[in-house]
Design a protein that fits this description.
Homodimer. The chain is α/β, with parallel strands linked by helices. It contains 19 helices and 16 strands. The longest helix is centred in the middle third of the chain and has 21 residues. The protein is elongated.
Length: 463
């Protein structure tokens, strides 16, 4: 399961925004802490540094505790990792070997530091953006308290990954700081790690940090609660107090609250945030545009710029891969030129060889119709970016079949729903798509990105 499947399931079951930190005391103490809290928390955190100082035994203890936590509850490794040169290997260790669901990182090396962790699209990366350490203000508030560095960091991180990939972590925090972070990052999950600064001002913290749905915060259980005679009752009381504050906050809102451009109140859909990002970076624009087919549409979808945005390109490749994993094929074939980068990414991701039919055959050299190594009789899956008339996809498939290859499946990112899949079926192909035009239109409308007229212009093209 992904981080979000576990997290949303745990919140639904426990009705709690609390998490428990499992510091390495005695293993029996930690096991007891898990049993006391597993039905009262929505996550656990493990402080890597606290385990590391115990040496090899500490790492073994970390792995043992990790295995003791119910698989339905997400586990966040509080590593605050910062080594750029080894981040790829460390991300592999955390997410593949230790099977953690989330990890905290220090972001001051920029996207290059965070990117290896974002490659694991089913996990969540927490970027540390603020600490309450007194001397930290020398850097965090530079150059001025009105335009501090930590808020610039939060703003920059918005382009590194979607809310499903990247969250924020804050140490000792005042309500006004949290409010500024929430204003810049309305859709991000925020992990608060310093209990001493939270619970004396819990009402103010919740007012400042809860998102539009009344959640979006991960709050630590104060360690002193575990020293009480009845810790479970104390934790349950704390949870109930937080939920009362949440309910009051939600009830105090206007019943006719409007959609705003940077906040999405949609029910969760697999590619909601990806659609919004594609619009925000200019892949979807409006105005009369002549298509390759010669038709004039009142909008234009241009996916070529995604190759310059690794985090979005990664999401798109992952979306294609989810479909390809259900199909049987020997090789991947990209249709020139738009789908070639995606086909290359899929070949690397799925470890399948790639070929491609040439758009035009050279009149010199080998004069190949299909580039790459293949054997007649092999089955090929065709990758295309957008399905409007289906002509380029079927022409490419015909070239592949002319050299003895078998083609059954054509996978595209966006289907314009103009009956093209039916045309493909008539020609003996099965069409698959990540997104449909109507799904894009509906998401953009409900997300406040487009007007009613623009929505109608998109929907009219389905006919």
């Amino acid at each position: 399961m992904t981080f979000w499947h576990k997290y949303e399931g745990a919140i639904s079951k426990t009705e709690s925004l609390l998490y428990a930190n499992l510091d390495p005391d005695l293993e029996q103490d930690l096991q007891e802490r898990i049993s006391q809290t597993q039905d009262l928390v929505c996550a656990y955190t493990l402080n890597l540094g606290a385990y590391q100082i115990l040496g090899a035994e500490g790492i073994r203890l970390l792995q043992s505790i990790r295995r003791s936590i119910p698989v339905s509850i997400p586990i966040i490794l509080d590593a605050q990792y910062s080594n750029l040169e080894t981040s790829t290997g460390f991300a592999r260790l955390v997410f593949e070997t230790w099977e953690m669901d989330g990890c905290t990182v220090l972001p001051y090396a920029g996207l290059d530091q965070v990117a290896p962790f974002l490659m694991y699209s089913d996990r969540l990366v927490f970027v540390l953006c603020y600490t309450g350490n007194p001397s930290g203000s020398v850097l965090q508030d530079y150059p001025h308290s009105d335009t501090p560095l930590y808020l610039h960091l939060v703003e920059a991180a918005q382009s590194w990954g979607t809310p499903d990939q990247l969250a924020l972590s804050l140490g000792e925090v005042m309500p006004d700081v949290l409010a500024q972070v929430r204003l810049i990052a309305p859709e991000r999950l925020i992990l608060l790690t310093d209990y001493d600064s939270i619970f004396p001002e819990i009402t103010e913290i919740l007012d400042a940090g809860l998102n539009s749905s009344g959640d979006g915060l991960l709050l630590p259980i104060p360690p002193k609660i575990f020293a009480e005679k009845k810790p479970r009752e104390a934790i349950a009381d704390l949870r109930d107090k937080i939920n009362q504050e949440r309910q009051q906050k939600l009830e105090g809102r206007p019943t006719c609250e409007l959609w705003v451009p940077d906040v999405c109140f949609l029910d969760a859909t697999p590619y909601r945030d990806l659609i919004l990002q594609l619009y925000d970076i200019g892949c979807i624009t409006f105005g009369d545009h002549v298509q390759a087919s010669g038709q004039v549409f009142p909008y234009y979808i241009d996916l070529r710029k995604i190759i310059s945005l690794p985090q979005i390109f990664h999401q798109i490749v992952s979306a294609y891969a989810d479909i390809l994993k259900t199909l049987e094929f020997d090789r991947i074939a990209g249709i020139p030129y738009g789908a070639l980068p995606t086909a290359t990414g899929l070949a690397l991701r799925l470890e399948h060889p790639m070929i491609y039919p040439r758009k035009e055959v050279k009149n010199y050299g080998a004069k190949r119709l299909v580039e790459g190594h293949f054997e007649p009789g092999e089955k090929v899956v065709v990758i295309e970016d957008i399905l409007i008339t289906g002509r380029s996809a079927m022409e490419g498939a015909a070239k592949l079949k002319s050299v003895g290859l078998e083609v059954e499946d054509i996978v595209v990112f966006i289907d314009h729903e103009r009956g093209v899949k039916e045309k493909l079926k008539e020609e003996g192909y099965c069409g698959h798509s990540v997104l449909t035009l109507s799904e894009i239109a509906q998401t953009l409308k409900e997300g406040g990105r487009i007007t009613g007229d623009q929505y109608e212009s998109l929907m009219s093209e389905q006919a």
